[in-house]
């Protein structure tokens, strides 16, 4: 059973953490007092508070009705938090105190209630329905609150920072709540004093003096129906022991976090490293993992945009999780050399158990390894993040480079790495779960490069069905992007810049992209869909200048292209052929002949890159060629 504010109270055993957790209830006033004192704080991996005005009003209504709020989860620190911590919004003055409890789930609810019900001297910092930052005080309309419970939402009133309610677009003042007499006259009780008995009693006396005949009885009902439920409100809590493992903390957070944003391992490590007391005592500062990651990513992506566009986002392309996985692969490889029982791995547990000291040692090596990966991709004519077939495939490749170093620089090793890479791309081997493949590829690639093992599974198990060319139509497919790069790598010459084959260093400058050879409308008018016009077979990499000349069927645009390049037709045919296109069929507008010849040529291109030819017989892949 759930409410609109999160899961209903349930037995902690349903979470599966019976050995480390217990279910209890805490009085709301006591809990908010813990926030104010700094006893209860946030681990730094928690995201910022973000609830809007409407949700704050709704949760206040829930508390005043004594409706279930949802389970809050905390973690005992044992007197020394493993994470860097910070107070909840509104309690910044206690930032220097070491907390006893860390709030894992319930931040949005408790922060909203803390600011609205406990902080008496400052309005709540929130946003309106348009996302605009606003400051609000919260009141309850005594008359409406003592009516039907179904009207309670309307009884909770959000008031601007100056405590003046207006209408007619701000021209007319309805209520001036800037002092107690004004509040009492309006019948609006300030919720910011609800837990301060002395101030409540003073406010009550003023309220009753305003109209004793009516307000005395109304206050009695208000105290019983609103104030008492708020003061006695119980918040169900799951309290995790300080002995709870990092992996368990991460798993529990993901299960109970009702904010809809899963916890990122990077964020958890950020808080863990920032809370490393040994590092802090040695340096006088905390370890700032996000800044370290930014420096690494900027250095890598500045030279090799294929690994990310910094102008888009820091985690465009290569992500912090990718980097951590590569570090974990190298760390577990090194540990395996010392202890054969240790497995090479990069699962979440391995990342969470990554010591700061090991990260500091390995991070520079992995940074250099990813730069090497960027250079490798450049030689394969993959230069932009949008053209990278699989981002995940660079993780084991960087790990292998970090382990083998210059051993990969000899021609034999380069050939093996290249074959492995293209088998992964064209066989579409990295389209599913990758953690197990990461591990196998690291171990098998290293052994194969050192002539101490069989061909890696990514090569042995990969195959390409020729009919797949018909269905490769968009960049959503790794093989589609791969064939685009292979056409450039094998020497395609642009149809405008005809001086030499397209070079990876000029692809961005020339605006090279995939373009239709026969227009889709022309194919649709003249042929059926047995030869799909949107297939990669009917596309080729061309510069923007060349693509702008592709108007109508090929017979109409080839001669103007040749003339613009100041080339005889037969010479321009040689340019066309560098795209593995039958120029004669193209000039004759013979789409079927063109399509069949190009499909055969692309098939050969794929199998050459994979280092083996596969054919499908009765649902199985037979192979011949290089191993």
Question: Can you tag this structure with a few keywords?
Answer:
627 residues; alpha+beta; six-stranded mixed sheet; four-stranded antiparallel sheet; 27 helices; elongated; disordered N terminus; disordered C terminus
Span of the ends, CA to CA: 58 Å
Number of distinct beta strands: 18
Number of helices: 27
Beta fraction: 5-15%
Overall pLDDT confidence: 88
Rg for CA atoms: 33 Å
- Low-confidence runs of at least 5 consecutive residues: 1-20, 615-627
Major sheet = 6 strands, mixed
Tell me, what's the shape?
elongated
Return the structural class.
alpha+beta
Helix fraction bin: 40-55%
Describe this structure in words.
- The protein has about 625 residues and is an alpha+beta fold.
- Helix content is about 45%, strand content about 15%.
- The protein contains 27 helices and 18 strands.
- It has a 6-stranded mixed β-sheet.
- Helix 1 packs across helix 3 (about 105-120).
- The longest helix has 24 residues, at about 355-380.
- The protein is elongated.
- Mean pLDDT is about 90; it is low at about 1-20 and about 615-625.
